[in-house]
Design a protein that fits this description.
The complex is a heterodimer.
Chain A (H helix, E strand, L loop, with lengths): L2 H4 L5 H15 L3 E5 L15 H5 L4 E3 L4 H13 L3 E6 L9 H8 L2 H4 L9 E6 L14 H5 L5 E3 L4 H13 L4 E6 L22 E4 L4 E5 L2 H10 L10 E5 L2 E3 L3 H11 L2 E8 L4 H13 L8 E5 L8 H7 L3 H13 L1
Parallel strand pairs in A: 1-2, 1-3, 3-4, 4-6, 5-6, 8-9, 8-11, 11-12
Antiparallel strand pairs in A: 5-10, 7-9
Helix pairs in contact in A: 2-8, 4-5, 9-13, 10-11
Chain B lengths: L1 H26 L14 H9 L6 E3 L5 H7 L3 H8 L33 H14 L6 E6 L6 H13 L3 E7 L2 E2 L2 E2 L9 H7 L4 E6 L3 H16 L5 E6 L17 H9 L2 H11 L4 H23 L15
Parallel strand pairs in B: 1-2, 2-3, 3-7, 6-7
Antiparallel strand pairs in B: 4-5
Helix pairs in contact in B: 1-2, 1-3, 1-10, 1-11, 2-3, 2-8, 4-11, 5-6
The chains are: A alpha/beta, B alpha/beta.
């Protein structure tokens, strides 16, 4: 590694690995397990170096048996470990929902706190790379809909580090949804920005004309729209990165919308029955008479994510679509 | 030896008395929801859990009262749980299918068929990694062995050399369906060995002495690092799948033959050979008194405070 490289802030995917490494070093009860997380260092390198550093007993390669592995992680959590289990693509959640929804989320409740469930499910999503319909879907609404699950969606490297560590420290089940299209991105303010806990939104860009609420890669997409050479250049947008859907920092959103009077929620998940509907409804319940025009949502079109680049671009929200939605908001 | 038999007879009598009262209270409308009792299968719970230590962990099924009691869960708290009372094992938030008491190693009954099997493997992995000396037992029915959870759990157990024992309680019926009608291919023991388990054995699940002997050997071997193994305990449920199920799918002659081999009567014969037959009647009388008191206490207990409905969401 060149000298200049050593001082650069970590890429998003390196921040995940660093957070896991720091937790493994700090607590012998932390184990990492999943398909390819060990010797291979993870399909995208999010566990690179951990197998060598902590050994195969704590960074555990598993067969492709997601439901069994997640079930075992639930048992390990109840028996005293703090497992971090990887689900390689968010779409694969559907083959192992029982351990997440019926076991991890419900057992602490059904036993009135009798069992501990310090478990982290790490996964990643990210449309826009022709990965096809079974490797591209954003399913955070499904997760946030299940009482008992926390849902973290880091939008940059700093949050990837902070939210991953916070997830491992949490005594309940947490799903961390990374975005692989951010994996190579660095947060230039990684070392200077103060860490924020889960449940605290971040004002990424202050403004007065309209509030845009986003998370994950859409934070970056809104920033692109607002850049000097972007389609919203000159529009004074306030951008709120929710960072975590559960817990939800509605208060920061409400304060922003009180200031701007307009709100748009942007997410990569499909708009229909998506998290934007819930957030829009909650803003409306609080601010019915303080909002100009309807609260708008922008998400993916109601289709599986198509393969051909042109089709995929047509269904996913992008900077241009965000600009169109914000302008409609300002005119509405 | 005699101590073990007397202990298992006591456990079986307590399970029987507990579940007879549960079935009655359910019929009378005093227990809500649905309940599944294990009457007729008590020897499996008593013999296996009798061979375990307090630090060992179990997972069980929707038909789990017996395993929980045998592992040491408090009968009064369990009864209160079924009645939905504040004093229940889980504060009235779990019910019959979700009783868990980690303080005695019960990691939970489970309403999802098969879900407890990989959980037990994970608990065993944790015990091995933490070097705690504990082992885990997954109780499951024979209907469960077709599930992906069973296949994946056994795959992981052998890979991880997890100190876990799979106890498959074969009570002849997968819910309302004859289990044999759902079976093609190799028998269970062959399948189990195919996954690489260290041993797989079929035992008489209605004979507490046989269950205890097989379990003791399996527990010792597993605890010594001998690898995961499986016991298939042949037994029969006297009641339907759930209370209220008329069980019209059963063959009357077969049922009658199994009733002859009621595990309590099998134990009576073993006791009689030793001249201790009176011990069974004494154990049953004591259990009747204990469970009458459990029901009375449950009925007298208050419902859970309403604010508890929103407590312990997510941990």
């Amino acid at each position: 590694m060149a000298d200049g490289e050593a001082t650069r802030p970590p890429r998003y995917v390196e921040a995940v690995a660093r957070a896991l490494g720091d937790e493994l070093a700090a607590d012998d009860d932390v184990v990492v397990l999943g398909v390819d997380v060990g010797a291979a260092g993870g399909a995208y390198g999010a566990t690179r170096g951990l197998h060598e550093r902590f050994g195969p007993a704590r960074v555990i390669d598993t067969p492709i048996a997601e439901a069994g592995v997640l079930g075992a992680a639930v048992g390990a959590a109840m028996a005293g470990l703090r497992p971090v289990v990887e689900i390689m693509y968010m779409d694969f959640l559907t083959v192992c929902l029982d351990p997440i929804v019926n076991q991890a989320a419900k057992l602490p409740y059904m036993t009135a706190g009798g069992v501990r469930m310090p478990i982290v499910f790490r996964t990643q999503t990210g449309g826009g790379r022709s990965s096809g319909a079974q490797h591209s879907q954003s399913l955070e609404a499904v997760l946030a809909h299940v009482p008992g699950l926390k849902v973290f969606l880091p939008g940059d490297a700093r949050d990837a580090y902070d939210l991953t560590r916070a997830a491992v420290r949490d005594d309940g089940p947490v799903i961390v949804v990374e975005n692989r299209r951010l994996y190579n991105r660095r947060a230039e303010d990684f070392d200077s920005r103060a860490p924020l806990p889960p449940g605290r939104a971040r004002i990424v860009r202050a403004g007065t004309a309209a509030t845009v609420v986003a998370w994950g890669r859409m934070v970056d997409e809104v920033l692109r729209a607002c850049a000097d050479d972007g389609p919203l250049a000159g529009v004074d947008v306030e951008l709120v990165d929710l960072r975590t859907l559960v817990p939800l920092d509605l208060e920061t959103v409400v304060q922003s919308v009180l200031k701007t009077g307009r709100a748009l929620v942007v997410h990569e998940a499909v708009t229909a029955f998506g998290p934007g509907a819930e957030i829009a409804a909650r803003i409306d319940e609080r601010l019915r008479y303080d909002v100009e025009g309807p609260i708008r949502r922008l998400g993916a079109a109601a289709s599986p994510v198509p393969y051909a680049p042109q089709l995929e671009a047509a269904v996913l929200p992008d900077a241009q679509g965000i600009a169109t939605a914000v302008r409609a908001l300002l005119e509405g | 030896m005699s101590d073990e038999l007397l202990a298992d007879v006591t456990t079986m009598a307590r399970i029987r008395a507990f579940e007879e009262r549960v079935a009655r209270a359910f019929r009378d409308g005093r227990i809500p929801g649905f309940v599944h009792v294990s009457i007729g299968q008590e020897a499996v719970a008593a013999g296996v859990c009798g061979a375990l230590e307090r630090r060992d962990m179990i997972t069980t099924t929707h038909r789990g009262h017996g395993h929980c009691l045998a592992k040491g869960a408090d009968a009064g708290a369990m009864m209160a749980e079924l009645f939905g009372r504040a004093t229940g094992t889980c504060g009235g938030k779990g019910g019959s299918m979700h009783i868990a008491d980690p303080s005695v190693g019960v990691l939970g009954a489970n309403g999802i068929v098969g879900a407890g099997i990989p959980i037990a493997v994970g608990a065993a992995l944790a015990a091995r990694l933490r070097d705690s000396g504990a082992i885990a037992v997954a109780f499951a029915g024979e209907g469960t062995v077709h599930s992906g959870a069973f296949h994946e759990a056994l795959t992981l157990a052998t890979l991880w050399e997890a100190p876990v024992i799979f106890v498959i309680e074969n009570n002849r019926f997968a819910e309302f369906t004859d289990s044999e009608a759902m079976w093609r291919g190799a028998p269970l023991l062959e399948r189990a060995l195919g996954y690489g388990l260290a041993a797989a054995e079929r035992i008489d699940g209605n004979d507490a002495v046989a269950v205890r002997a097989a379990a003791t050997e399996a527990v010792a071997a597993t605890r010594a690092g001998g690898g995961p193994r499986l016991l298939e305990a042949m037994t029969y449920r006297h009641h339907g799948h759930y209370e209220g199920d008329p069980a019209a799918y059963r063959d009357e002659a077969e049922t009658a033959a199994w009733l002859e081999r009621d595990p309590l009567e099998v134990a009576r014969r073993a006791l009689r050979e030793r001249g201790e037959e009176g011990a069974l009647d004494a154990a049953r009388a004591a259990a009747e008194d204990e469970m009458d008191a459990a029901v009375a206490a449950a009925l007298a207990a208050p419902p859970p405070p309403l604010e508890s409905a929103l407590e312990h969401v997510g941990g």
